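Feature request, filed as a ticket because there's no other form

It would be nice if the structure record came with a short human-readable summary line next to the tokens. Right now we just get the raw output. Example of a typical job, pasted below so the devs can see what we mean:
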Amino acid sequence: MFATADIALEAVYRSDWGRIIATLIRLFGDFDVAEEAAQEAFAAAIDQWRASGVPDSPRSWLVQTARNKAIDRIRRRARFEEIARSRVPSEATAALEPADESHDISDDRLRLIFTCCHPALALEAQVALTLRTLGGLQTDEIARAFVVPEATMAQRLVRAKRKIRDAGIPYLVPGRDDLPARLNAVLTVIYLIFNEGYTATRGQALVRTDLCTEAIRLGRLVMTLLAPEPHAEATALLALMLLHDSRRDARFDAAGDLVLLEDQDRSRWNRAQISEALPLVEEALRTEPGPIAIQAAIASLHCQAPRAENTAWVQILRFYDILEQTQPSPIVSLNRAVALAQVNGPEPALAVIDELAAGGELDNYHLLHATRADLLRRLGSSAEAAKSYARALELATNDSERRFLERRWRETQGA
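Raw output as currently delivered:
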């Protein structure tokens, strides 16, 4: 019974955390109340589901329980502060009603994204808050996405929620005239949700399918919202996610271990997704391409190569050159170095990596050290490669990635 309840609770957390939070924020208009009530509901579910079994509709049970706990919290606060008039009666009436599964919860999630991505917030705060509330990501996972310390990210999240509350930012999808000011942040959020699904920060599984699927669904929703007017970067984002996700099943073997792109069985790639994505890439590139369109073009070249040796690395390197000019960042430079190694060999790429390492911005980013180790391994510098693999192992938190890095570390130790 315990195992069944725990598995069900883990599954509903992964699939429905964002839906539950979005519904509670719609009801109570308070991020902290919503998140604390949801956490209390999940804690209550551990005991009750183990004792009584998993309910027929786990999400409805959690929403109902969280509503009741939120009302209790608001009532306690109202009594403590001796507020004569509060919002509790109206909210209580709504919250005590049975959860309405026919309600369009996707609208709640879209409203939540646009609330978090209000231009009154700093861009980093917009993205971080949406990842926390909608994606259910932990603070350390979001910190990794931004390559900042966990404490710094925790402070950003607190300030962002306070700003939304104090400024009375409305919980709604903006009108068409207000969309441009928020769209870049919304697209960034969706892509970061996808990235966390594509390579999970922690846990045994390399991929969180629920987050990848949710990000793709949100990408489609945004395109529907923008129709009939085309938007190149929104189109490119959907294409980019479809292309990356098309390789999902080939990225790990039967044991759940990481398989590098060059070693993947390309017959396992999802050709239907690739076929859907390629025309979207062409559409996004018709105008002056933005950063997402360039990344989609790079992904399309990988997906069109029938074998690893047929990959158009020269073209990919040119796209990275453009991307580095339009959206310079250490991560872009790191990815460009990988392409540079394929075109001109590991030595010039290693020089780029060493320059990035000297800058210090990616010192806690495990892929910098893993890439450096791989280049050193290809150059025959096994001892130095082992040191970089060891550093990458110190920083990696996903079990699948750690097993891969440990195998490589042992190989270089043996050499």
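Something like this underneath would help us a lot:
The chain has 19 helices and no strands.
The two ends are 49 Å apart (CA to CA).
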